[in-house]
Amino acid sequence: QGPLGAQASFVSMFRALHCRGFSTQGAGSSLREWAASNSVFSAAHMPPNEIYSAPEILKQENRENGIFRRFWSYVGHVGQFAENKIASNKYISATLGSDLPIVVTQDPSTGALRGFINLCRHRAAVLLDKHSESSPGVGCGEFGNSIKCKYHGWEYTPDGRLARAVSMKGVEKFSARKSGLLPVQVATLGPLIFARCETALEVGASDSATPAAHVLPAGNTLDEAFPGLAATLGGIDTHVFMRRHTYPINCNWKVFADNYLDGGYHIAGLHAGLASQLDLSSYNTELFPLHSIQKCEAVSASKRQLQGSEVAGRVGPPLYAWLFPITAINKYSHWMDVHTVQPTGVSSCLVTFDYFIQRDVLARLPAAEIERQLNASADVQREDIAICESVQTGLASGGYRPGRYARPETASHHFHMLLAQAL
Hints:
Blueprint: H1 3-20, H2 29-37, H3 55-62, H4 67-70, E1 73-77, H5 79-82, E2 89-96, E3 100-106, E4 113-117, E5 139-143, E6 147-148, E7 155-156, E8 162-164, E9 183-189, E10 192-196, H6 200-205, H7 222-225, H8 229-233, E11 239-249, H9 253-260, H10 267-270, H11 272-275, E12 278-287, E13 291-298, E14 319-323, E15 327-332, E16 335-345, E17 348-358, H12 359-364, H13 367-396, H14 410-422
């Protein structure tokens, strides 16, 4: 579905929502009210400031079936399992949203992946908690024949069943069968691992629990959530992991998203080096139910006049894919980076970049050249961080009233509409 079809569906949807009515009380109501009267992009104002500053909004986003848990998010890559050479059960740990620890395990014989909430069912102790020094909250490791809680010694099989519950014999109505690890849905896109957990807590509460009905479906598979994305990205199986960078930023996570989704509007003014590689007149955006794609052409070598730390050939014709709510996949030349933005507070977030490079390029490109290209990318991130923090300061000042969308900002409007549906 292209931009016009997507916009038409939003118009009809929000007219229907507005007719049904919403309470003016509670988190998210002001955003829904905004969406009901701003669904047409060409006539829309930007959403109210409180979506970037209200603790109630962040609480709504983080609730048990909130957007950070219910929708697909990137949590790691299959190369992390290869870091552990021992032929045993392997895992990677991550966090969904601000606070939900999850673990993805790999069967040593089949390579199959399973996902669980990374908490013991007895007293909520984190089970597999080896962390990477460079990436807080993210780690990888291995375990033996069972997952054992170091607190009270409960043990779980690799497929999540409760195998041993210390001192629980004789406890009335205790069911080992119902006390296994709560499941998290996992899927892969090339080397990338995604996770979501729409119903884990509900199913844990009752055998008869069913998924809650939501205005905005999250998609049971990656293909269902992001139709056509795999074909659009092309051969990402040829990319291998290179490096992870993390950036703590003093802004609401949605400020970072807005900056990414402005249709290249900020590139000429903010990223002189990057702009010197791109033909910004060719920039275009396509909207889909839960994702958007931004593309543009690269400047030809004969017309290229590099600025700043930019490196010739680093960018190529870029493709920027935003997967609602918090994942971005960027492809440019022989590089791919995948990043997520996780809220750490109302006005702070942590952005994690995983860099991948084509396997054949890694084999022939000098290490010094790879470093130059990674440093050029880091310069772009630092420029984005500075402007995002500046915007957060302005939003919190009380001196700003929501403005109008510029013509390139269709993906930003699309993102805000999805938020209004999902909250």
